[in-house]
């Protein structure tokens, strides 16, 4: 099978930390170009805009690691140029943009892959299997991290369209929507937005999975131990997924993984979607966030500086 000539867009934290090593270790891809206003990858041809990269390089595919609210126009341009496209989570800032990209990809007959890296953790994959034949009684999600530690200086994250605490929180929702046997519905939400910022720094969600109550507490101001936990009570005992999906406790066993294969798996999946001529665009996590913004109450919190 021919290797895919790939362009990578938005050379920041996640591109350097996960995408570049995962692409380099995957024999289905050749990273031949990057597009970033400031960032570069050593030894790879660097462009400042996606448009220049597309015009000048002989690409098969483009992978986007820019913030969600600046992804739509360049992603659409890549699709319309006949290139396969992979998107970091969340796939775009709005649902209508994702749907437009999906339609454009269908028309252009290229692959669109809206990736959700947290779904690829060992624990999430095993949790999904375990829950498949259980009756869910209730579930609670706690996703509490220190924004200063994980997103230092990323002012875009608290701007409108930056998702605020939903940037990590949507990872929890991506796992929950993948492992719970029934769709999640949003009942109410409460958000706190720091004075002068455009996106929430904390959020409390009340949802349901069928008739089972599901709560989620998202907090960006967590100091001390960082918490990324999903606990599900079922008719056959409690399942608990901790460390963002890397540790799974079931009534009869516990598993933990030392190696993180989330991003290598995403690129394996992207290559296989291209091979099959298929797309994978699941908007469930983004739809829940959008619902929270539609239904949620908003409070103004104290100003926040990094
Ligand atoms: P980041 O460190 O800020 O990197 C994003 C890059 O995009 C920037 O370095 C910047 O490079 C480019 N960019 C283009 N337009 C931009 C704009 N208007 N504002 C800011 N940057 C712009 O962010 P990141 O943490 O890598 O996150 C990027 C995406 O990956 C987000 O969707 C995030 O949810 C996702 N993600 C992040 C993590 C994580 O732990 N950080 C984990 C998983 C997924 P130039 O200045 O060179 O253009």
What is the CA-CA span between the terminal residues? 47 Å
Low-confidence stretches: none
**Helix count from the secondary structure assignment:** 9
In sequence order, what are the helices and strands, one letter per element? EHEEHEHEHEHEHHEEEEEEEHHE
From the alpha-carbon coordinates, what is the Rg to the nearest angstrom?
19 Å
Which small-molecule species are bound to the chains here? NADP nicotinamide-adenine-dinucleotide phosphate
Cross-sheet strand order for the largest sheet: 14-13-12-11-7-10-9-8-15
The assigned structural class equals alpha/beta
Main beta sheet strand tally, sense and closure: 9 strands, mixed
Shape: globular
Task: Summarize it.
The protein has nine helices and 15 strands. With 306 residues, the chain is of the alpha/beta class. Helix 1 (13-24) links the parallel strand 1 and strand 2.
Question: How is this structure best described in words?
Answer:
Helices cover 32% and strands 29% of the residues. The protein contains 9 helices and 15 strands. Strands 14-13-12-11-7-10-9-8-15 form a 9-stranded mixed beta sheet. Strands 3-2-1-4-5-6 form a 6-stranded parallel beta sheet, sandwiched between helices. The longest helix has 15 residues, at 262-276. The model has no long low-confidence stretch (mean pLDDT 97). The structure holds NADP nicotinamide-adenine-dinucleotide phosphate.
